[in-house]
Amino acid sequence: MQNAIVKTLINEEQIRLYFIDNTQLLRDIFALNQELPESLKLMLGKTVSAMSILSGTLKGNQRMSLQITLSNPLHKIFAEAEANGNVRGYLNEELLRSSNTEEKSMQDLIGPSGMIRVIKGSEMNQFTSITDMPNQHITDDIANYFVQSDQTPTYLYSDIQLDNGASLLSSHALYAQLLPGAPPHLLSEVKMIIKANPDIFSKLNAEKASDSEEALTQLFGDAKIIGHSSSQFFCGCSKEMFYGMLYSLSEEEIKRSIEQNEDIEAFCHICGKTYAFEQKEMQQLF
């Protein structure tokens, strides 16, 4: 089941483990970023993939916003997830315009001084955390955020397969977190089992819930599926959101567009939509 988060408890209900086949979600993201070099495509893909599985941990109207700042402080990756499963992500213009990203690995691009900033909560109750990126790795360091910020041992795994032309073949993600009172060594055992089973997602993402539960039991000794939720790409932009851009233009710029009978266009860098502001709209603003 694509874009469906499967929520389970394993190891005598001491670990919550979620997994997802988010291939379609990443296809939607990559369709808007077709010209990206492979290194940037993987970085964006792993960030969005991680956020898609983490959307399943949010409740009510909670939202989680992520900003990854690479060692070059001008280069940033943004992603956001909502409790209803809506996920979006993009690279900032400075990173997109960088000329030497094709020659660099993800580790080199993150560098020794990468940072992660997370804003999490509801509109009325938000908290912000900033952590470093000691692993120089997207999913490992997002998991490290939970360790540093929440003191909760967490494991995140993203498996993205590209063909020789850097087109997406498949994408899966897995999240495991110790529940209160669980011994820390259990999470290490889960990591070892996952690494020892490279085909784990073909076993877990079965059409029938009973088959997934059986595969989990074979891997981890016992398992119980406790729920499902969806995760999907959703931008949520609208023309009204870009009126602020018009107000940022100078009076001369607006007047020149009116005199030359030109529309002003605003481009959403998340979903690729273009919104045109016609003459009468600019006349009213002017």
UniProtKB/TrEMBL annotation:
The keyword ATP-binding does not apply. Keywords: Chaperone, Cytoplasm, Disulfide bond, Redox-active center, Zinc. It holds the Pfam family HSP33. Transmembrane segments: none annotated. The keyword Cytoplasm applies. SUPFAM superfamilies: Hsp33 domain, HSP33 redox switch-like. This is Hsp33 family molecular chaperone HslO. It comes from Planococcus wigleyi.
